[in-house]
Design brief:
The chain is 19% helix and 40% strand. It folds into two domains: 144 residues, Diaminopimelate Epimerase, Chain A, domain 1 (Roll); 162 residues, Roll (Diaminopimelate Epimerase, Chain A, domain 1), CATH 3.10.310.10. The chain has 334 residues and is an alpha+beta fold. The chain has an 18-stranded mixed β-sheet that branches.
């Protein structure tokens, strides 16, 4: 640590984002994937201090701003959570879009301020709506996203045969109808969704090899999204819950997960370009999502997606570590 760890806390749709503002040492130059590997291999104790108890909790999420490497990027970010480091995070992009404008990292425009954010999955454009000179709603356009595997089947414990897709939206997710597990939103406890989603993630990780045309570092199954099954052409909101990393539950509708769902829905002919859908989270917060364009990602027919939401500030903190504190490095209690 280079002095205390200082942070700004925000949330998007209830999902926390702890933005590191000081205390990390300088990182070596290189691509963002090399920076991600360096932080993972050399500075992971700082992630645990910030994400774990007693300063955080099992569902904490964080963002470390680093020097951009891609031309045109206004800032670059490494995402962190209870298990390690993600490649994309939509709720964080929404928060960072507002944060970048508020902190003067980009010059504000009259109606919309564009913030180009370099993520491990690539460059993501965030359009920040300005209201009375202040940042408000943020809409981002995703990296190319695609349906990777369709109608896969696994037999899972007491649940039996489960059919699922795997789609990429900056990270890979298994997508499954929660009703296959006997689960219904608004009726069943979150713990039941976590058990089902985690079981599918672990089984799919073992059964379905993944690949990504840009980098092998992107080819891992991040989690499972359980849906209410409303994937077809509709104007009705659709609800989902994302369980990722080590059984971590996203309170928001999950920005990269919405992107993955849109990619799967478009591949199945269930949504048209520019058709908007509302995606609702486990706590009732909402993102708006639509297919922005049709493109290609290596061998995969792909899309880019627009996802919109709002982020809010929740605090500013300074964290310290005492040398004789036996629990200073962090811990988790489930």
């Amino acid at each position: 640590m280079n002095g205390p760890l200082t942070v700004v806390d925000m949330h998007t749709g209830g999902e926390p984002l702890r933005i590191v503002t000081g205390g990390y040492p300088d990182l070596p130059k290189g691509t963002i994937l090399k920076k991600r590997a360096y932080v993972r291999d050399n500075l992971d104790h700082l992630r645990k201090i910030l994400m774990f108890e007693p300063r955080g909790h099992a569902d904490q999420y964080g963002a470390l701003l680093v020097e951009p490497d891609l031309p045109g990027a206004d800032l670059a970010v490494l995402f962190m959570h209870n298990e390690g480091y993600s490649t994309m995070c939509g709720h964080a992009i929404v928060a960072l879009g507002r944060y970048a404008v508020d902190q003067g990292l980009v010059l504000p425009g009259a109606d919309v301020t564009v913030v180009n954010i370099e993520c491990p999955c690539g460059l993501v454009r965030a359009d920040v709506t300005m209201r009375n000179g202040k940042a408000a709603e943020v809409r981002f356009e995703s990296v190319p996203s695609f349906l990777f595997a369709r109608d896969k089947v696994l037999v899972l414990g007491d649940w039996g045969r489960i059919t699922f897709d795997i789609a990429y939206g900056g990270a890979f997710y298994a997508l499954a109808d929660a009703r296959q597990f006997g689960l219904k939103f608004g009726r069943d406890r979150v713990a039941a969704f976590v058990d089902a989603a985690d079981a599918l993630t672990r089984a799919a990780q073992a059964a379905v090899p993944l690949s990504h045309p840009d980098a092998e570092d992107l080819a891992f199954l991040y989690g499972t999204i359980l849906t209410d099954g409303r994937d077809g052409f509709s104007t009705q909101p659709t609800r989902n819950v994302c369980v990722f990393a080590d059984r971590q539950v996203d309170r928001s509708p999950t920005g990269s997960g919405v992107t993955a769902r849109l990619a799967a829905m478009h591949a199945r002919g269930q949504i048209a370009v520019d058709q908007a859908r509302i995606f609702e989270s486990i706590v009732g917060s909402r993102f708006s999502g639509s297919v922005a364009s049709v493109t290609q990602s290596g061998p995969h027919a792909a899309i880019t997606a627009h996802v919109s939401g709002r982020a809010f500030y929740s605090g500013r903190c300074e964290f310290t570590v005492e040398d004789d504190d036996p629990l200073a490095g962090g811990f988790l209690v489930r």
